[in-house]
Every structure is written in structure tokens, then in C-alpha cells.
Amino acid sequence: MKLLGKICAALMVIAIPAAPAFAQDNAIELSGDVMAVKSSTDAAGNETTELVEPTVIVPGDRLIFGTDYTNSSDETVTNFVVTNPLPSAVALAVDADPALIVSVDGGQNWGVLSALTVSSEDGASRSAQHADVTHVRWTLASVAPGESGRLEYPAIIR
Q: How far apart are CA 85 and CA 21, in angstroms?
């Protein structure tokens, strides 16, 4: 349960407006959540999957980290960047969208996972893996007044 508290506390969203700050101050409202993926099979053998509030989580459990956004201003917001650091207790799930923009070095460099590398302890370079991801990022090209949406990524408890 202590691990769950750390994961929920680590759900931090960093939003960076790319246009002048005066035009976008508090324009986009953000809220985040973490849901556990629960699968079950009924008596007929039908499997169902649902998202539930996480209560007890263990290594291997699947979580969905989500960020809801709403433009509460009267102006369109352009090139709004939402960055989510991954808590150290989770790894990006291997079935995450391959087009997702990620960092494997604490937010210094960004790209799709297949284009990134990491340095091993011996100094050799290797292709980055899902477990190396430290941050995910989305750029919202345009968010109209009143528009809202949701950004998500799947993770696995280490």
C-alpha cells in the first residue's frame, strides 16, 4: 500500500505553453489520475477488463496513467506541451503507442522510443527499452476554447 501512495504522489504533470505566457496563463486546466487494469473471467469463460481505483498493487500489475485537459479560456491555445514523469516504481508498458514521445534521460532528450539510445555502465550504447523511459510528452497542436480531452499511457509495476 505504501508503494501505491508513492505512485499516486508521483503523478505529476508538467505543462509548458509554447506561445507567450500572457495569452495562456491558466488557459488549460489539467488533472491526473491512475487506474488499475482488472481482468476477470465469468462462469461462461468470457473475459472482461475494467479500470478500477488501485487498492493493492504488486509487481506485474498494469496501470493506466491519465491526464485530462480542458481549455477554460476564450482563446485557442496552440502548441501546448504536457509532460508526465514516470514514477520510478513503474515501467512504460511494452504495448504503449510506439509514436509516443518519450525521454530516457530525465527529460533532456526526446523522441520515439525506437530512435533513442542509452549508455550502459561500461560506456557502450544500446537501444532504449520501455523500462528506460523516464518521461512521456504530448504536444497539443491546438486546443479550442471549451475543448477537452484525455492523454494516457500504460505502465507496469516493477
A: 23
- Is the pLDDT at 40 greater than 90? The verdict is no
Cβ atoms of residues 8 and 56 within 8 Å:
no
From the list 99, 64, 107, 59, the residue with the least C-alpha distance to 83 is: 107
**CA distances in angstroms from 30 to 39, 126, 128, 132, listed in the order given:** 29, 35, 29, 26
This prediction's pTM: 0.81
Q: Which of 76, 58, 91, 57 is nearest to 146 (CA)?
A: 76
Residue bearing cell 513503474 = 90
What is the spatial distance between Cα 81 and Cα 59, in angstroms, rounded to a whole number? 31
Q: Where are the beta strands (DSSP E) in the chain?
A: 14-17, 28-41, 47-52, 62-71, 77-85, 90-92, 101-103, 111-112, 117-119, 125-127, 135-143, 148-157
Cα–Cα–Cα angle for 37, 10, 152, rounded to 5 degrees? 45
2 falls in which pLDDT band (50, 70, 90)? Answer: low
**Residues with Cβ within 8 Å of residue 56, at least 6 apart in sequence:** 1, 4
For residue 121, name the pLDDT band (cuts at 50, 70, 90).
confident
